[in-house]
Design a protein that fits this description.
heterodimer, A: about 600 residues, Glutaredoxin, Rossmann fold, 23 helices, about 15% strand, B: Glutaredoxin, 2 domains, 4-stranded mixed beta sheet, 4 strands, about 10% strand, binds flavin mononucleotide, binds iron/sulfur cluster, binds FE2/S2 (inorganic) cluster
Chain lengths: ~600, ~170
């Protein structure tokens, strides 16, 4: 038998989520297995492979066999993969989730995806500039610096139709043009990597999985605008992303893609990383700039826009991580190739963090114009446990919930906005019939109320009033007129706040009232939570016909609220019960009823 | 121990750490936040006496330092526990029952969210999204992440973490 040990390459996803699922132990297990057997099979690391729901993920790429992805890999499975696949040349099909040349069930996850931003994520080692270059990296920058004028670059960006991926969707080429045309020779470019949406991790995955793509996009922008200094403002909680960025900056400087006289073009550019300090509002561009300057991160009135007066009062271009990651692809492949994807007004692709009550949750990139239904049911595989789809939340705390009746809308900026939600930066949280919409609205409002910088009265006090009302409703104290008060306050906050935080904070409440008013009414008027989430509105009882008196619930209850004779029906003292749900989980006869 | 504490309760070691960091950053623009981050990374938190020293050495008015430090949630004015338990309260985790996880952990230690146990071993810190939403609900203890938790598992993990690390497991 030929030695196959070097005809295979093993690649393991070691992004934050992979590590959380145990990928580091799997990596070690392969290392040990190779050492013990004296194999010289290359063992590589990569970023987010995309099938986050199947972590830990291991790719085995074998000459002649192609690529096989193993999912949910445990350290116990490693020996068999090495024995049968790497040495024996026969993939272990029962552990595989994806195989070249054979269609497995999970292939549906990729059918509708188009991976432009995520072109390298999960394929290359993010800590290796050589692998980035081998995959076509820095060709865009080389082309931009040696074959194109700044005007031509801006023109290409306009033609591509790319719009800002940080949420607002402003055309990127137009923004660059504004900064380019400003007088003065000191200008700045900034990457907004503050990713504040609590439940979205697109930017983090790009930074962890392919940091050079962002750096290359930023350098092209700097050249187009005439900036010689750049900053990457990264969220405080992203230590791995920060480490990889710093490494990428050092490596690309060493290769002459950053620094003085880049690629002999006469253009010089330097980048530094700034770590945020934990304030959601600093994702707002003027607040972010204040934060880089060392101030409290409070937004200020625009205009002047950063393009005219930004960092240290100089013309500044600020874009989101994903926006920049698109740039090298567009420059290399041309505006027309990019604009071939998408709709009339929204070109290209969008990355979403698909999470919540979904079978296949992970990082997905789809062409604009695909319907929400296709993303949730075809890519994501629908709702687990046979439950029913209820709504999908887009745009995080600034966004809104889209109910089933609108799930056939196309994903583009205008269509999503029409539903009352926003495209946002890419959070897509799926909810089923066990999710309470009032509770979700309360959750987002609590978040924005905590994060309000306090500058505007309506944002600061208005959100507090709304939160008090929602607290009341979810604890069974809702009053006649509360729903109307929420709507009234919401409208006032939207119209009298200075920045996007306040202007959009009421959105989750307003959209859930718009689509799920009956659920609010059940809480307020019937003191009932139809999804059985809001604890103060629940009662726990034991069905005497089902209870066989096994006493499991008695032992499970932490507060001694259940009593009864062995083999006789049990009862719950509702005064003592804290609604911890332990008895319902313990009962094997479904005798504990929640209503 | 009489003369180890400097002004306002800071030790001479802490003060010299501050002096070194201030000197390192003094020349760069917009350095206040990175400077506070570095001081906190080395000292663990930002007590009043330390912030005063930063003001004195850097020439930045104390009011500005307190203003900036109190604006950002990363900065702490109280010491933290030996281990930090970050409980994710992001959207995906919320939808998958994070509330019950937080409750179970706080109940286990008898502390409120953000609080530190009396023995100084654990601080329970709520955070928004740890970036592993597909494993929701998630908690992170120091550098170790635990996902797909039930409240009972969360209780077990935090209970055993304390014992394994600090009493039984001298190796760790
Ligand atoms: C409260 C608030 C938070 C924001 N957070 C982010 C963020 O985390 N990341 C981001 O790229 N943009 C965020 N933005 C949008 C930025 O202000 C800005 O529009 C964006 O960075 C521009 O880049 P783009 O044109 O590439 O989208 C936020 C805006 C507001 C009002
Ligand atoms: S709207 Fe809210 S967050 Fe924005 S500036 Fe006003 S108070 Fe601050
Ligand atoms: S829900 Fe919890 S507190 Fe209430 S009876 Fe059941 S076990 Fe006891
Ligand atoms: S595959 Fe792990 S982060 Fe996506
Ligand atoms: S919401 Fe908890 S990890 Fe993202």
């Amino acid at each position: 038998m030929p030695d196959r040990s070097t005809s295979s390459k093993v690649t393991i996803g070691l992004s934050s989520c992979g590590v959380a699922a145990g990928a580091a132990q799997v990596y070690e297990a392969f290392r040990r297995e190779f050492d013990e057997r004296g194999l010289s099979t290359p063992l590589r690391r990569t970023g987010c492979i995309g099938m986050c729901y199947r972590e830990p993920l291991v790719d085995v790429d074998t000459e002649g066999l192609g690529r096989v992805t193993y999912g949910g890999v445990t350290t116990e499975q490693v020996a068999r993969i090495v024995e049968e696949h790497i040495i024996g040349g026969k993939p272990v099909e029962e552990f595989a989730v994806r195989m070249e040349g054979k269609r497995l069930e999970d292939e549906a996850y990729y059918d509708r995806q188009v991976r432009l931003v995520l072109r390298n994520a999960g394929l290359i080692d993010p800590e290796s500039i050589d692998e980035y270059i081998e995959a076509g990296g820095y060709q865009g920058l080389t082309k931009a610096l040696t074959e194109m004028t700044p005007e031509e670059i801006v023109e290409t960006m306009k033609e591509s139709g790319l719009r800002g991926r940080g949420g607002a969707g402003f055309p990127t080429g137009v923004k660059w043009d504004l900064a380019r045309q400003q007088p003065g020779d000191v200008k700045y470019v900034i990457v907004n990597a503050d990713e504040g949406d609590p439940g979205a991790f697109m930017d983090r995955s790009v930074l962890e999985g392919d940091p050079h793509s962002v750096l290359e996009g930023l350098t092209i922008a700097a050249y187009a605008i005439g900036a010689s200094e750049g900053y990457i403002y990264a969220r405080a909680e992203y230590p791995l992303a920060v480490r990889r960025l710093k490494m990428a900056i050092a490596d690309s400087q060493e290769r002459g893609f950053l620094g003085d006289d880049i690629l002999g073009s006469g253009f010089s550019f330097r980048v530094s990383v700034k770590e945020g300090a934990g304030a959601f509002v600093c994702g707002e561009e003027t607040a972010l700039i204040a934060s880089i300057e060392g101030q409290r991160g409070m937004p200020r009135l625009r205009p002047p826009f950063p393009a005219a007066k930004g960092l240290w009062g100089k013309p500044t271009n600020i874009n989101n991580v994903e926006t920049y990651a698109n740039v090298p692809w567009i420059i290399t492949n041309g505006a027309a190739a990019y604009a071939a994807y998408g709709t009339e007004t929204s070109k290209g692709t969008k990355v979403f963090a698909l999470t919540g009550k979904i079978v296949r949750g992970g990082l997905v990139e789809v062409p604009m114009g695909i319907t929400l239904r296709d993303v949730i049911f075809e890519v994501g595989g629908g709702i687990p446990d046979g439950r029913k789809f209820k709504a999908v939340q887009l745009g995080g705390p600034s966004g809104g919930c889209v109910p089933e009746e609108h799930i056939d809308i196309k994903i583009d900026y205008e269509s999503v906005t029409k539903t009352g939600a926003i495209m946002g930066s890419g959070g897509m949280v799926v909810m089923d019939d066990r999710t309470c919409m009032v509770d979700i609205a309360r959750f987002f409002l609590q978040f924005t109320q905590d994060e309000s910088c306090g500058k505007c009265t309506f944002c600061r006090v208005g959100t507090k009033r709304m939160l008090e009302i929602l607290d009341r409703i979810t604890s069974g104290e809702g009053r006649e007129g509360d729903i109307e008060r929420l709507e009234e306050l919401g409208k006032q906050i939207v119209s009298s706040s200075l920045c996007g935080l306040g202007q959009s904070a009421p959105n989750p409440v307003l959209t859930t009232i718009r689509y799920f008013r009956d659920e609010y009414e059940a809480h307020v008027y019937e003191k009932r939570c139809p999804a059985l989430v809001c604890k103060p509105l629940l009662t726990y009882e034991i069905d005497p016909d089902k209870c066989i008196g096994c006493t499991l619930c008695v032992r499970a209850c932490p507060v001694g609220a259940v009593s009864g004779e062995r083999k006789g029906p049990h009862v719950i003292d509702t005064e003592l019960c804290t609604k911890c749900d332990a008895c319902r989980k313990a009962c094997k006869f479904e005798a504990v009823i929640v209503s | 121990m009489a003369n180890t504490a400097g002004p306002g309760g800071a030790t001479p070691e802490q003060l010299s750490i501050v002096d070194r960091i201030v000197a390192e950053f003094s020349t760069s623009r917009g350095a206040l936040i990175p400077m506070l981050q570095q001081v906190q990374a080395e000292i663990g938190y930002l007590p009043y006496a330390i912030m005063e020293r930063i003001a004195e050495r850097s020439g930045v008015p104390p009011a500005r330092i307190f203003g900036v430090a109190s604006f950002y949630s990363q900065f702490r004015f109280e010491p933290v526990g030996l281990h930090i338990i970050r409980v994710c309260e992001g959207t995906a985790c919320h939808v998958q029952g994070a509330v019950d996880i937080v409750e179970a952990i706080c109940d286990e230690f008898g502390v409120a969210e953000g609080g530190t146990t009396e023995d100084g071993k654990f601080t329970v810190e709520p955070v928004a999204c740890l970036g592993c939403c597909s494993l929701a609900p998630v908690i992170m203890i120091d550098e170790d992440t635990f996902g797909r938790l039930t409240p009972e598992q969360a209780r077990d993990i935090v209970r055993n973490y304390g014992t394994a690390r600090d009493e039984g497991g001298a190796k760790a």
